[in-house]
Predict the structure of Xaa-Pro dipeptidyl-peptidase C-terminal domain-containing protein.
Amino acid sequence: MNQPELFSKKEIFDGEEIEVFYRKARIPVDPEEGLDLSKMEGIAATAHGFCAKFNQRTYKTQDGIICEQDVPVTMRDGTVIYTDIYRPEGQTNIPCLVSWSYYGKRPGDGMSEWQVMGVPPGTISTMSKFESPDPGFWCHHGYAVANVDPRGCGHSEGDINLFGTQDALDGYDFIEWVARQHWCNGKVGMSGNSCVAMTQYRIAAQQPPHLTCIAPWEATVDIYRESLYEGGVPALSFNEFIVASLTGPNLVDDLVANGRKYPLMNKYWEDKIPNFKNIKIPVYATASYSHFHLHGSFDAFRKVRSTRKWMRAHREQEWPDLYNPGNIEDLKRYFDRYLKNIHNGWEMTSRYRIEVMDAFDCDYRTNRAEKEFPLARTQYQRLYLDASNGSLSKEPMTNVSKVSYDSQTGQVNFDITFEEDTEITGYMYLRLWVEAEEHNEIDMFVTIKKLDEDGSWLPTYILGEPHPGTWGKMRVSHRALDPKLSTKFEPVQSHLKEEKLSKGEIVPVDIAIVPSSKVWHKGQQLSVEVAGRYIREGWFEPLAWETDNKGKHIIHTGGQYDSFLQIPVIPPKYKTKSGYVYR
């Protein structure tokens, strides 16, 4: 694929001038031709960023719902953006739900069926924006829904600013505008998952007065640490897929080009991290143990300052979870409480509801009520690696040993068999003492797997496919930690410098493992898998990593090389002498 032409701008981030690269946004598809993906080039062959024909009008979409289409809204600097507003016909004094993302505000236009993976046909109306609240439901329950094309998207003026302060300020301006509309009761909420969740935290951090509550379901919040350079390993292909998909009249903030120019943390990347302490309104968040938004979902939720916040953690992929009818009704109770002031008992909802996974599509516990995360009753245990036999042990190894694997094709495993049922819920982390046999860099991919009594893999399923397992990644030259962000249960890399390895050098690295919740039954095994690549085949998302691996990686254990896995063990809430256990 040809490299896009780049355009340079000098921009100010927290008082520092930085050169930022942009590329031209994708030219809109001719709406008369519909969504013929065969006519779209390369990685941008996707319905993401579909731009419907500009057509200002007010019309009835179905019984009881009207749409004000391509309504102009002027930002504080004079830039005009456009929105489609769906609302129940004839109703006033109603709240508004805002969907703010870059993928096109009317993707259903020209499509006979609006469908997403894992969601049965007919579930979502063609009024719905991708990953967003469906007007086909909400308007029938007394809500307006505003589908917005932010700055530079679709027909909106300006250049697309991805997840930065400019985008958040525009969100502030839009919310204050929509709250003043004659039909609005002055209360505005935000809803949606993935990108539509990521923007909610950033806009909420600007504290628009009429933003009453948010529902960010699955949200990456640190685009550098959680997406482009997770663990320090470059992962630019997915972001290329996203940036190349965006449609608009001008330029788009090129995350990929900027990722190559700025491979370490700087003010440009920091500008894309929300100021969580400013978020004090109600928050209802979700997190999937099986999806790449996982870390951000928990991290954001822990950091927001709101005293009214709720989290639901689950195994399912984000789209089936978003449109599950039970979850929609649950969300409606939340919005009814804060956007309509209906006293429906929402406050009695547990602050954390977690699924404890078992195997395949079975969960050991569903929506178990908890008061905090990590759980206060967590007992942290260390399982020490023994390279001589590939085992994990509760006691430190005295004998020094080492094991190696081919960084391109190999992997090593360290296993332990549980002697009793064991629940692991929370953050794990892995300390390894590592050496590169013939190179100055190591990229490692860690997976925590569950095995049965015979050593066969017991995966969990997502969209009907086996998920590789709970994960962590590490580029060893990025091993330096940030002491302010790191905790006793989660090491956080600073990404401020590179420390290449010298020949024969053995260094410790602390690898963060994303949060999870799973039960191991008596006789089942926990396996730590370490490789130089992410081991997953055939997944539909274009995830890939630009590794810098050569030769063999060596893991040292025992003695001064205290390689271990720290696990958060959750004891039963109640256990009798006769053996009855309640979790």
Q: What stands out?
A: The first strand starts at residue 6 and ends at 13. The chain has two domains: 26-234+265-349, 379-574.
